Amino acid sequence: MATHESGLPGVHAHAAPQGFIRKWVFSLDHKVIGLQYYFLALAAVFVGMFLSLLMRIHLIWPTATLPFLGEIQPATYLSLLTMHGTIMVFFVLTTAPQGGFGNYFLPIQIGAPDMAFPVLNMLSFWTTFLGFIVLLAAFFVTGGAPLHGWTGYAPLSALRSMPGEELGADLWITSIAIFCIGALMGALNFITTTLDMRAKGMSMMRMPLTVWSWFITAILGLLAFGVLLSAGILLLMDRNLGTSFFVPLVTLNGQLTGHKGGSPLLWQHLFWFFGHPEVYIAILPAMGLCSQLLSVFSRKPIFGYKAMVYAMLSIGFLGFMVWGHHMFMSGMSPYTAFAFSIMTMGIGVPSAIKTFNWLGTLWHGRIRFTSPMLFAIGFVSLFVTGGISGPFLAQPVLDIYLHETYFVIAHFHLIMGVASIFGIFAATYYWFPKMFGRMMNETLAKLHFWLTFVGAYAIFMPMHYSGMAGQLRRYSQGTEVAWIKALTPIQVFISIAAFITIASQFIFLFNLFWSMAKGKKASDNPWEATTLEWTTATPPPHDNFGGRTPVVHNGPYEYSVPGAPKDFVMQSDPEIKAKH
Amino acid sequence: MGLILLVVIWLITFVSTYFFIAKTWWLPVGASAAAAGIDHHFTVSFILMGAVFVAAQLALGFLVWKYRSGGTASTAEYSHGNAKLEVVWTVLTAVLFVGMNLMSSSIWASERFRAAEANAVHVEVTGMQFAWYFRYPGPDGKFGLTKPELEDASAGGEAALGLDTKDPASKDDVVSGVMVVPVNREVEVILRAHDVIHSFFVPAMRFKQDAVPGLAIHMHFTPIQTGEFEIACAELCGLGHYKMHGMLKVVSQEEFDKWLAAREAEKQ
Fold it and tell me: Is the ipTM of this complex over 0.90?
């Protein structure tokens, strides 16, 4: 594994572009591409959030007439949840942490002038962008967006059985396939860049945990998205070419469909073989980032750096062996459920190690409550809360009851959704000065934190209770089943909490754009952090280090080193002597 | 700021935990033989995981307050961690998680690893958009043939299932829109689906299983309480998913025999 010397290798040495198109649209610069990914995810998250707003309105006021949209029908509700899930999982949780921040900061943090394959990088962004447009198009075609949920279980997703399951569903699966291609290109680039483009002295064990997390995420992506891509192509063939990969002999309203011999469970296996690692694709970058932030703002080295690296590696490894825990009630052999359950409980171990180490990092620190730190602390709290419900669902005997209830919704929203989004917020507040040369407004940022933190708990904690009482997911109305009808008050509470939390996201949006123009000018290292991005200009020049090639002498988390002149030692500073 | 964080995190923790302990919203009363074991394991899991939840959140709140900048310590401690501690908590969590799993595995095994008892009542449960049908084999103990090409969903009943009336075994099959079973006797359900995946969920029985087209899934449960228990579909199956519910009536053996005989008589 070569670490590159100045000017090597030639593939990434490209001159700074001059025209607007080459500079901002079809850019080869990983920083511009990172921003493109970020703003794509920003647009997507507001679309996805708007859809959840409509869902929460429909659940408590089913007959409300909305301006422009009219009354939301039960069928529309199913489209909303399908599109909400798909947009959030693919175009937000996968796009912002990895495509956005990973693209922007991985090369800088390892001291490289760009990604290994800049053209591939540009292509992967524009492919992802195309995927998003194709997905949104599903809203506007005859029949509207698909209704089969983001998991697209066959045969429902494979049959043209109702409005939404026509062209809309074809566009949905095409969009996912396109997204997979973009993600595969991105993954190759991240892996190669991490392995081959590290600056002199940047050994693997001196890489910031953020870099480790992007690297492991890329490996997961490389292994997972290929499987989903194949599954998507097979599903498209079932839908359009008369094949029967996922459809056995079925009848719709007593009419034969012409399919026979396929396996609905095959789709689930392929989907979840991607789907479970996807959870870690969403949250690993947040883990890496929050480890980083807890160290920076506690002014203390990360507790157990090596343990953190091994924990992430084992989470990534085990993440590929647990997909069956989504299928305990699917008709899969009960013996395999036992094996999948043990593996899943096993994943709790590295997750717990990480939590212990985060608390250990705060221990005897000197904590600075900046807005990125607040979100990192919030992340730890949400990670614990979202994680603790995992062992319930991982045990088949409890999952018999909990499967498909709001308990599951609470679990994955807290851990994969909100905790990951807290990672994205923390990253935004932390790196905004480096990306835009200005500071974000701290007062607004803190207000945003408190409303979002309390709001997230107010929305998702009650879902555990309604799940325990049997509230089923994907029910557009609770009127037909007595035990679900009785849970309406919880739905009302959740909706109101959601309205407030959604409204407070506009504080963030305003702060983001206002600060770009009006924020206080940022210095090169406003947080007094140690990693390489803080050694270069703000914003970084086209080649990241202005012709200079950084040489690394220290680990990434040297804070409060005894005898050092300041309470932090940069990675590129002369090697420190202090031993621990 | 450290103090506000402590107060907010602790408050969230206490309020959240309160509703679990108070069981303000909880599982319905269990009415099957397996319910007590499952509910007991719920309680054990809630106690173990609840302790971890409370301890971690309280520690987080405490640490951010205690080690706030401007607090007692003038500098942070320079430490890269403690390998011994890492080993301790790795082993502890491994024991906790794997142990919890093993505790529940015997219940899972008794529910899903063994076939139904010989004297079980056999009921074929078929899900189709958006209704449940229940079929009993009748005195001959055999289910008659069904054929997809004979299905007529709008006609309901036997026709909806596509029952082949030419098959002698089908003559005494009883098809019902309500599931009636005797109390204290094991019920073997044979789950089928015609069109898409449905999921047969009876909360009071602590029973849920997907009905998958192309598969006949054999499962069992034993009701131990008479009464009416709602059934709902738990797997998204299309527009009417939220309306796809049914009723399970658990009655005494005599009432069950009477009910079945009456249905047989109706059929003749």
Answer: yes
